[in-house]
Amino acid sequence: MPVFRQALLAGVAVVSVACARSPQSTPEAGAAAIAIPEIRANLQFLSSDLLEGRAPATRGGALAEHYIAAQLASYGVKPGMNGSYFQEVPIDVVTANPATIRVTASGKATANLHSTGDVVVWAGSATPKSEAKGEVVFVGYGAIAPEYRWDDFKGTDLKGKILLVLVNDPPASAAEPDLFGGKAMTYYGRWTYKFEEAERQGAAGMLVIHTTYEAGYPWQVVVSSNSTEHRMLARPENGPAPIGVRGWIQHDVAANLLKQAGLDLDALVKQADTRDFRPIPTGITMDMSFTNSVAHLAANNVVGVVSGTDPKLESQYVVYSAHHDHFGIGPAIKGDSIYNGAYDNASGVAAVLAIAHAAALEPVKTKRSRMFVFVTAEEAGLLGSQYFGEHPPVPARDIIADLNIDEANPDGPVRDITVMGDTKSSLGPDIAAMIKPDSMRLSPDEHPEAGSFYRSDHFSLARVGIPSVTIGAGTDFVGKPAGWGKAHQEDFVTNRYHQPSDEYDPKWPLTGTAQLATIAYRFGVQLANASTIPTWNTNAEFRAAREKSLSEK
Asked: Distance between CA atoms of 474 and 509, rounded to whole angstroms?
């Protein structure tokens, strides 16, 4: 049995990496610095009531940012932002005034639509008034995917139109079982992509047709997630004009409007399932408007660097990332209003801090450099990582991979890990091969149709072409009965996830956190010393962005 696995099974306080060579001859010797007492101290402080839930642009959020920067400095990790540890992220907070929301239909269909009952609408940008008026055009799935030879727009002029779009991807078929990822959702299926494409098309607004099955969640989730304030990044001056109104519409409401115009939604969906589909004007005019309150705030990503040693490779980087924010102070549950976010994601921050410390203490550094990125505003829609991906301190082409940690298993060691994105790039097979000698394995995503890959910070780097994954613990826990891991996970989701009860527990052994940090550390070392760099799979939707960035050298 490898020494690495023996250490995990023993639950030791310090996780060491098995290696036949002298500890002084390999940078993996730095893994000996991944110590549970340090992980515990960082996790306990970051999730304490003192930090008030670490909401972006609050006192507690700023305390977390400065604490992380101070830890990096104490380790000897250099600032990663032109002499600073901080990358300021501008965040606009936009809240619609419910009393002013007006959504009407005229022309071939007439209706006054009720906000949150029939539709949920919000601002497309940080403006005092949001409005969109134009003809409704059904655009199928609203996707342009060259790798699947798919284009729902066919060059149609949609400027000033209100686009009506289906959620999720075009379905696979017996003839093309892997079309749009087969059962797995691709980014083209996410509502976020559809709004981005609407902007590129010059649309005035967009409504996504909701069904529980295709969306993966009921209408009430749409209401609770989108009918309050929205946080968004400040708009770039040279980007496409924002759509005026974004929103969702109930399936039956959309079907009734279309029926008035002589159109059958089920028939339109069948047309949209084929490559021959073209946008269909409906003759319905939609008029949407409301006023907003707007606040312009800022929070910080925290960035540190451990430089590589190879003159030809030190300008390339392996990134480790974790989000440091949570929900701050919110509605009280059982008398507690501080959303501490211990598991989500003080544990991930503690793990990446431990990795950074290990890298700084290595007797022999890696050939490539490593960057440690602690992003803000993940809970607001990946805003901090999106800003980092769009404004990296080094060219995106020089970042060879992102290894993200979101929820770092404070419980015991496992025999399996999950790698979100393992089937999209060479990173999945490579980490599987690395852990195999330690009798460990990768467990597949049990619900690929949910599109979890697009809901964590690694995605923000993937979308600019950087091969990226989130590494997490599986559910096969050492020393626990079969099924314990899944039951434990379900209990967390039901009783603590995004609730004040996600608090630090002094009974946590944190051997699982140390194990995960060690695996991620070792994998980063492997990538930073490799003769080749990670690559996207042929059908990955981000491959084109990577090829474009590499060609710009």
From this structure: 17
Report if pTM > 0.85: yes
**Do the beta carbons of residue 472 and residue 405 sit within 8 Å?**
yes
Choices 3.50.30, 1.10.10, 2.60.120, 1.10.260: CATH for 94-294: 3.50.30
Nearest partner of 210 among 90, 285, 292, 117, judged by Cα: 117
Cα-based distances in Å from 308 to 78, 116, 360, 394: 12, 53, 11, 14
514/545 Cα distance (integer angstroms): 34
pLDDT for residue 552: 81
* Contact between residue 288 and residue 103 where contact means Cβ atoms under 8 Å apart: yes
Which residues of the chain, if any, have pLDDT below 70? 1-29, 553
The pLDDT, as a whole number, for residue 493 is 86
Counting Cα atoms < 13 Å in the Cβ hemisphere of 222 gives 28
What is the model's pLDDT at position 551? Answer: 86
Closest to 16 measured CA to CA, from 527, 519, 360, 367 = 519
- Are the CB atoms for 128 and 290 separated by under 8 Å? no
Task: Compute the distance between CA of residue 324 and CA of residue 375 in angstroms, rounded to an integer.
Answer: 6
Rounded CA-CA distance 201/511 in Å is 50
Kindly state the tokens that stand for 440.
């460990």
The pLDDT assigned to 184 comes to 84
Superfamily of domain 3-9+49-75+307-551: Zn peptidases (3.40.630.10)
pLDDT of residue 11: 36
